[in-house]
Each structure stands twice: as C-alpha cells, then as structure tokens.
Design a protein that fits this description.
- By secondary structure, this protein is of the alpha/beta class.
- It has one domain: 3-Layer(aba) Sandwich (Rossmann fold), CATH 3.40.50.1000.
- The protein has nine helices and seven strands, in the order βαααααβαββαβαβαβ.
- The protein has helices spanning 19-29, 35-49, 55-64, 71-84, 92-103, 116-125, 155-167, 185-190, 201-210; strands at residues 4-8, 106-115, 130-139, 142-148, 176-179, 193-197, 214-215.
- It has a seven-stranded mixed sheet with strand order 4-3-2-1-5-6-7, with helices on both faces.
- α1 (19-29) runs antiparallel to α2.
- It is globular.
C-alpha cells in the first residue's frame, strides 16, 4: 500500500503545451485531417480561450470525428505520437517531481481531462501507477463518437480523485495535486497539498490568497 498519492494534470503541467493542440497539428502533418479541419480546430481553441465555448464542447467536437475509426489503429498511432512528439514537450521539472514522490513511496496518478488514447502512452512511459481521464466509448472495436461516462473536468476531476483515494484507503488530505488551470480548483481545494504549476493568472491570484505553492517549470 502506498503512503500517499500524487496526482498530476497533463496540459501545461507535465507538458509544455496542450496535448489537443499537438495532436491536431500532428494529424494534419500526417495527412490524416484536412487544412480546413486544422483551421477549424484552431478556431475552436481560440473560442475556448476567449471563454465563448467551454472545453467540453471542444472535446466532444473532436470525439465525434473519431466515430467509426478502429480503436486499435488509434492506440497504435498514439504510441508513435508520444515517441515522435509528446515526449519532447515533457518538463524536466515534472519528471524530477514525479521521481521524488515515487522515491517517497507515493502512488503517481495522471488526472487529466485529455482523452484516454493520449494519456495511456504517457502513463506507460512515465511509469504512472494509474490514470483518470476522459474515456472514449468503444463498440465492437470501433469508436462510437461519444465519451464513456462523464467528461473528466472540473468537479468530475475532484469526484474521481476522491473516489480513487477512497478505493485505495488513502486520505485525500494526504494527497498532492499538480495543476495549472482555474478548472482544477475543485481538486486543489480537496487535496491536502495543492501545487500550482505555471498557473493561469486567476489561479495564481488564488494561490497567493490561500498560500498555495507556485512552481515555474
């Protein structure tokens, strides 16, 4: 049994970018999406950053595009995507933090809104103990174009973190969570050791008020 749990967000926390942005660019480079799709994706990202649409709308838009694709093919692609692209965006400080907690006997858990086929290679290659993320629905080996269960974002992230701690008989007040976004505040408030990594301005302001540690990676 681990002594405690260290949860990590993915985008702008472990990675010096957004995994969604990276994968859309990579798919375009490989000729797997059109220029129009690339521009559309960039526009949607801009609308999200402007607060006009929420992140769930953005994710569901791209999930719908996977309908009818074979899950095995996407999973194989995700391994290549990690090796050729993602691993080059990993913060060295994130690795140092992960290894430090492992050495202290912690379970290391990836807690992200990103899709499972993006998260699982990262879990595997960085030797995470588990992953909590947005899962794609699969039927007879093919994606349905929907997600399975709830989108792992905001309050849902907090709920999953609490349930994970409960399932492993660990007090969430002994847990750490490393994250950058205001959307992660529910989890940051739930754990005993919130850690703000490259925080968005609103989260930085809250961190100063609450006395939460701030890391610049």
């Amino acid at each position: 049994m681990s002594d405690y749990i260290a949860f990590y967000d993915l985008d702008h926390t472990i990675l010096a970018s957004s995994s969604g942005t990276l994968i859309v660019r990579d798919l375009y480079k490989r000729g797997m999406v059109s220029l129009l799709s690339l521009i559309n994706g960039m526009l949607l990202s801009l609308l999200y950053k402007s607060g006009i649409i929420n992140t769930q709308s953005l994710i569901l838009h791209w999930v719908e595009r996977l309908k009818g694709m074979e899950a095995k093919t996407i999973e194989q692609y995700s391994e290549i995507f990690f090796e050729e692209t993602v691993k080059h965006y990993i913060y060295p400080q994130a690795l140092e933090s992960i290894y430090m907690h492992k050495a202290k006997g912690a379970s290391i858990v990836l807690l992200s809104a990103s899709l499972d086929f993006i998260c699982k290679p990262i879990m595997k290659h960085l030797h995470f103990d588990d992953v909590l993320c947005t899962e794609l629905e699969v039927h007879n080996g093919y994606y349905t174009g929907s997600i399975q269960g709830n989108y792992c974002y905001g309050i849902e992230k907090r709920n999953r973190a609490i349930q994970f701690c409960t399932d492993h008989n660990i007090d969430i007040k002994s847990a750490y969570y490393y994250a950058d976004s205001v959307a992660d505040i529910p989890v940051l408030e739930a754990v005993g050791f919130p850690q703000c990594v490259n925080p968005q301005p609103a989260l930085l302001k809250l961190a100063h008020v609450k006395g939460w540690p701030v890391h610049r990676w």
